Structure formats: structure tokens, C-alpha cells
Amino acid sequence: MPVSDCMALTQHLLFGRSIAATKLAGPPLFILGHWRSGTTLLHELLALDTKYASPTTFECFAPSHFLLTEGLVTRFGGWLLPDKRPMDNMKAGWALPQEDEFALMNLGAPTPYLRMLFPCNDIPYENTLASSGFTDEELAKWKFLLDWFLKAVTYKSGKPLVIKSPPHTGRLGILKDMYPDAKFVHIVRDPRKLFPSTMKLWRSLDTVQGLQVGENEPRLRKFVFDSLRTMYRSFDEDRKGIPSNQLVEVKYEDLVRDPVGVVRGVYQDLELPDFETIEPQIQSKMQQEKDYKTNRFSSDNQEEAVILQEWQEYATKYGYV
């Protein structure tokens, strides 16, 4: 039996009943938005509030045995991760907040992230980018594994969770059904920046994680264009009837210009308590990272016209045209 399977079995034997009996410590706070729209920055800012916990990179990469191994690996295995993420200049580290889609993938849930292994093949599970796209069997498995993982992280932390995963944008209805009192922060970004940044993201992950080498650009462009449309058609349908104190929207451009003001607005609109306790931490974080340089993308007029045509509904709805 592989070592990882042995560790997973041991964790199940030691903690399985306790995880199953765990109740979430409070309504989850979900961060939604397309890839490269600023979800990571927003996640890291909201995670500064110590009332909450977020899944760490290690927990998402080793969800089946992190209760056994996280302390050991994160203490002695820092060298196993690069200092920065391959798609941008943001810090990487085992203890940093991470998106739970990786945990779902590693637990065997249906997710299009499996495309990273075989980027030259057809995209698997594209249907799971929309609430209505799941088959009954896929949905049951996906919901069970998500709830199990959130319970496992809650068992370890004892705190309400801040969760971030771009694919969840199209699953808003499922999440609302599972967690009726959950809160949602949705972030958007200029599509003329969003598209080239997303292309760079997938190219980087394909290079680092992929097991295939080959021409993939046409398939990747189609996937990036299609996935936003799929996610946002579902999002627009799912958001109907959600109270304003459960769903708030922000713009990436506003967040980088005034992070304190934007996060304060999130707390006010979602009726979250004690913003003043994290305001100094946000200011300190932004001061420490003042020299951080975002990737710069330039598109010619023809490419921008294609992007705005493909994503016209998104660009118009959120005020980018």
C-alpha cells in the first residue's frame, strides 16, 4: 500500500468519527470570482481576521492526512515549495490560505482542475462549473467531499471558515443550499486584464504540473472563454433571492487602490463584526508588500476587441465598457 494511502487510512481510523460528528463553527464566508480576478489577495486579507480559519496550502494538497502530517511537513519541508507562485509574484508557502478546489481534486471530486495533468486532452468535468451541470452522482460525491473537508478543517481549527475557489462562482446555488446562512464576497476585474492573466495562469500550471507536452493554445483559449460564460450564467441565475447582507460585490481595481476601505465595506455590507481588529493588520500587510509588482499584460486593439466580444455580458454588467 502506498505511504499516502497508509496515512489516509490512519487519519480515518483516528479521526474519522470525530470529523463526521463535527459541526461548522459558523456560517462559511465564500470568496467567489473568476481566476485572476483578485480572489487570492482578498482571501489573504480576510484571513487576517483571527476569528476565522482558512484551509492552508498543505491541507488542500494533503486533505486525506493533514491532521497527521501537517505539523511535521510544514516545519521541515518548506524547501518542497517555491518561494513564489509560478503564475505571478505572490508568496507561496504551506501555511498560506489556499483554495479548496485543490483539496476536492485530491480527494477525488469531479473538477476541471484535473486538466492540469493532461492539458492536451479534452477538459474533464467542465460541466461542474455550473450548479445545473452536475449529474446526480457527481453532485452527491462533490457535496459529500466538500462538506467532509470543511468539517476536517473545522475540527482542527474550531473556527468559522473563509473559503476561496474560483470554480465555486458557478456553484453559488449549491453552496447556498448546503449552507443557507453562508456569506459570499464576489470580486470582478477588467476582462482585458483578466483574459491574458488567466491564460498565463493555466500555461504556468500546465508547465509545472502537466504530464503532457504539445500544442494546446487553441484548446486553452476556448476553455478560458467558455468557462467564464458558463460560470457567470450559473452565478446570475443562482444569485436570485440572496439577501444583500449575504452577498457583496467588489472590484479588483478598487481593492488594490484602497484595500482597507474595500474590506471595511465588505464587513459592513455582510454585517460581520469587529473590522477594527484587523484594520491595522491590513495596513501592515500592504505596507510590507508595497514593492510588490503585479504582472503587466498588454494586448493589441484586435485582441482586446475579441476579449470584449467574447465576454461582452460580463464587461457590460460590471462597468468595463
Number of domains: 1
Q: Order of strands across the biggest sheet?
A: 2-1-3-4
**Can you identify the CATH superfamily?**
P-loop containing nucleotide triphosphate hydrolases
CATH architecture: 3-Layer(aba) Sandwich
Q: Total helix count?
A: 14
What CATH calls the topology is Rossmann fold
Number of DSSP strands? Answer: 4
Whole-number average pLDDT? 91
In percent terms, what proportion of residues is strand?
5-15%
Proportion in helices: 40-55%
SSE run:
HEHHHHHEHEHHEHHHHH
Main sheet makeup: 4 strands, parallel
Rg for CA atoms: 19 Å
Spatial separation of the terminal alpha carbons: 56 Å
Verbal overview:
The chain is built from 14 helices and four strands. Helix 1 crosses helix 4 (66-76) and helix 5 (100-107) crosses helix 6 (136-157). The protein has 321 residues and is mostly helical. The chain starts with a helix and ends with a helix. The chain has a single domain (3-317), classed as Rossmann fold (3-Layer(aba) Sandwich), CATH 3.40.50.300. The mean pLDDT is 91. It has a four-stranded parallel sheet. It has helices at 3-21, 39-46, 57-61, 66-76, 100-107, 136-157, 172-178, 191-209, 217-238, 252-257, 259-270, 279-288, 301-310, 312-317, and strands at residues 29-32, 162-164, 183-188, 247-251.
What layout of secondary structure does this protein have?
Elements: H1 3-21, E1 29-32, H2 39-46, H3 57-61, H4 66-76, H5 100-107, H6 136-157, E2 162-164, H7 172-178, E3 183-188, H8 191-209, H9 217-238, E4 247-251, H10 252-257, H11 259-270, H12 279-288, H13 301-310, H14 312-317
Parallel strand pairs: 1-2, 1-3, 3-4
Helix pairs in contact: 1-4, 1-6, 5-6, 8-9
